[in-house]
Amino acid sequence: MGDSAIGLVEGLPERLRGDRPPVEGRWRIRLGRAARDVVVTTTGVTIEKSEGKVDAEIHTDHGTWRAIDEGRMSGIEAFVERKLVVRGSIERALQFEPMFKRPDGGGMRYALEEIDIGRGVVISALIAGDADSEPLLLVHGLGASKASWLTVVPQLARHYRVIVIDLPGFGSSSKPIGRYDSAWFCGHLCRLLDCLGIERCFIAGNSMGGKIAMDMAMLDPERARAILCLCPASAFSNRPMLRLVKLLRPELGVALGFLPRSRVRQEIRSLFADSDRLEDVWLEAAIDDFFRVWRNPKARGAFFAAARSIYLEEAHGDAGFFTRLELMATPALFIYGERDSVITHHFGRKTQQTLPEAEVHVWPDCGHVPQIEFPDRTADVMLKFLSRSSEGLAAG
Fold first, then answer.
1. How many C-beta atoms surround the C-beta of residue 336 within 10 A?
2. 367 pairs with which residues across the strands?
């Protein structure tokens, strides 16, 4: 690490923000071959030689670190552009940058907030973009976290106030006892919006998050200006294990603590049409983040409760999912992957039949997480839809 790089890192203690409590931890900053550990406690910041365990390692080159230090680029932007690598917890890496003052050099600025929405529930949220811009809420899928949206946050935050959350039970949010069905999640999201002073917003969701976006539009249509659903979960007509799943209690998931790392790696790679599009450093960081949460028994219970509720929901009938969906009038965008191993792309045809006015895309070369597999394409389609929706709402 050159002298100038050492100076940039060693200047951090004087730049600790005083307007909020620091997040305690140990972060390793590696610039080239050399590294320093930044240790944050309630009493301040110290710079130490790199040794022992850390909460997260941040690897980049000298020029990128200077750009981040001068505010010309955020760590998220560097991460998305493959100029920065995270080892260990992505969540812990995200906590690092907002703790320090930096100039406004044109790079994206973001904050990590812990929002108390009442009833003992605190929602972890990453907020980026102009506070006066229209709000866009991003909701992750089952077993995921806010990190699953990072690949498109910089593009979206140029135009919208982007609020990326960890759902209750997932990521760094509280893990309360609850039903963990879609209506339960929607109730928490409405309270979150109330706490943020947001009456209406755009809502985007991937997988289970897409289903929650649809249910928000059906249960409380005044809150959703438009919804954007990426490979959304829905209700299944064919449920061969229905009787067994009804008998299984989500509490059983608490006991299933051990998962081989190789199994998690395999499951994450299976979400992609071409797993080579997921770089190894991203994959390993995602696995680290998964296990950080999975070690919590309450998180495992939440995972199984949410999965069970999706499987048990009725597809048809008077109160069935698709019966209710037919009545939804909210502008909607849907993206499906033809090579999605989780949600079949045939739901795209079903969705178009149910909602003739909706914009439906089926991408032949895509798996279950288009925002990660094709971030530029996904952001472009999302932004164009959001722009048309804003114009339509203004004209209306």
1. 25
2. none
| Bridge partners (DSSP) listed for residue 29 | 36, 58
Q: How many whole angstroms separate alpha carbon 186 and alpha carbon 197?
A: 16
Domains and CATH numbers, the chain: 3-99 (3.30.1050.10), 111-395 (3.40.50.1820)
Contact between 107 and 181 (Cβ < 8 Å): no
For 186-214, write each residue's pLDDT tens digit. Answer: 999 999 999 999 999 999 999 999 999 99
* Of 102, 111, 28, 108, nearest in space to 76 by CA: 108
Joined tokens for residue 396: 């209306």
Task: Give CA–CA dist 303/291, Å, rounded.
Answer: 13
Three-class SS state of 146: helix
Q: Facing residues of 39 across strands?
A: 26, 46
Please tell me the distance from the alpha carbon of residue 354 to that of residue 207, in angstroms, as a whole number: 19
Question: Strand, coil or helix: what is 271?
Answer: coil
Contacts of 282 (CB under 8 A, 6+ apart): none
Classify 272 as helix, strand or coil: coil
Could you identify the residue written with the tokens 């001068």?
A: 70
Distances (CA, A) of 383 to 65, 142, 165, 338: 29, 24, 19, 22
CA–CA gap between residue 189 and residue 101 (Å, rounded) = 31
pLDDT tens digits, one per residue of 54-85: 999 999 999 999 999 999 999 999 999 999 99
Whole-model pTM: value is 0.94
Phi, psi (degrees; rounded to nearest 5) at 146: -60, -25
Alpha helix positions (H), 2-133:
3-10, 62-69, 75-80, 90-96
Question: Tokens 């995270």 sit at which residue?
Answer: 86
Three-class DSSP category at 50: coil
